[in-house]
Structure formats: structure tokens, C-alpha cells
Amino acid sequence: MAEYTLYTNPMSRGRIARWALHEVDARYDQVIVEYGPRESKPAAFLKANPMAKVPTLVHHHACHDHVVTECAAICHYLAEMHPDAGLLPEAHEKADYFRYLFFVAGPFEQASISQRMGWSSDDPQAQRMLGFGSFELAVDALETMLAGRDYVCGGRFTAADIYVGAQVIWGVDFDTLPRRDTFVAYAERVKQRVAYRIADTIDEELIAERGPQG
Ligand SMILES: N[C@@H](CCC(=O)N[C@@H](CS)C(=O)NCC(=O)O)C(=O)O
Is 67 helix (H, G, I), strand (E, B) or coil? Predict the structure, then answer.
């Protein structure tokens, strides 16, 4: 058995977890989980993740199985489990690392999804309660945070760039983010990662093999 089992679907956020697995050069088995009713999904997957969401990562570690869900957590967990990959932040990088990782996984993702669903409010009181304020505020904040630096922590790629990078790549490629120079340049930069290209190719080939259902 490989060290990890990745429950994923090629048309899902599971692509982020696959990218992270390749960044740390981990051995993993994949289980493709089809979209559909809960009852149609593998029992082991449902047991591992009561949310029935992909990606779900199971780490077969020293006679125990450890389940990790949430893409951002998976990126950081793999960086912790494989420190030689050099994806963990140094002490002086930790503030940016955790700030950006949590900002993008929380408020920024909520802002993007809300925008896609057409959920927004101009009411200042509602915006005070919403963790992301408004889509425009979250996008402007991310642009300011990424401006003038190559990566989340400055000049060096870390595990935070897998998650933040995937969100920005998605936003630029699918026009869910405004095409601002900072976003386009950052997306192009992180796409140059060898691990990104390997993982992306695997998922694109799976989509091609599987046909329109992805
Ligand atoms: N917050 C989760 C979101 C996971 C998620 O929503 N996954 C979607 C695919 S991108 C899913 O599994 N949808 C299938 C379903 O809900 O039945 C993460 O970041 O990993």
C-alpha cells in the first residue's frame, strides 16, 4: 500500500491535493469519487469524510490512518510530513504564510463562490458581518497582498503557494477573478512548477479518458 490514499475527482479541488502530493514527491494511490448521491460513493470514503467531499486524503502512517480534509490543510500537512521538500515557512515567513493561507481558504474563497452564485449585499451592516466584506474588497486585498512579491512569503515558493496559487490560477483561467497583472503574473509563475505540470497532466488525462462526465 502506498503511504497515502487520495480520494479525488479530476474535475474538483482534488487537483490541489494532487499538486501538493507531487510537490513533496509522496507515493499515493488514487480513488476516483464520482459526483452523485451519497449512497453511490465508496463506504471507506464516507467513513473517512462525513462531508463526502473531495479531496479527502488518508495518511497510512505507523499502523494508523490519519484523515486530512480541506485543501489548505492538506497542503500544510504534506509540507509538515515531508520537511525535506522545503515547503514549510521559516520563522520570518510564518506571518505571511499563515495569513495568506487562511485568508484565501476562508474569506477569499467565500467571496469567490458568493460572487459566482450572485449572492452579494450592498448593505454596510451585512458587509460588516460577512468575513469577506464584499467580493471587490477581498479581490483588492489579495491584489495588494501579492503585489511586489513573487510568492506568498516573498522570494520563495512554499506550501501556501500551492493553495493560493491554485485559487488564483482557477480565477484567472475561468474569469472568476479580474485579469489584473498581479494575478496573471503570479498564476503564470506558479504554473511553472514541475509538480503542478505533472499533477495537471494526470487530471487532464483522466478527464480526456472519462469523457464529458469528467
Ligand atoms: N472546503 C473544501 C471544499 C471541498 C469541496 O467542496 N469539494 C467539492 C468538489 S470541488 C465536492 O466534493 N463536491 C461533491 C459534493 O459535494 O457532493 C476544500 O477546500 O477541500
Answer: strand
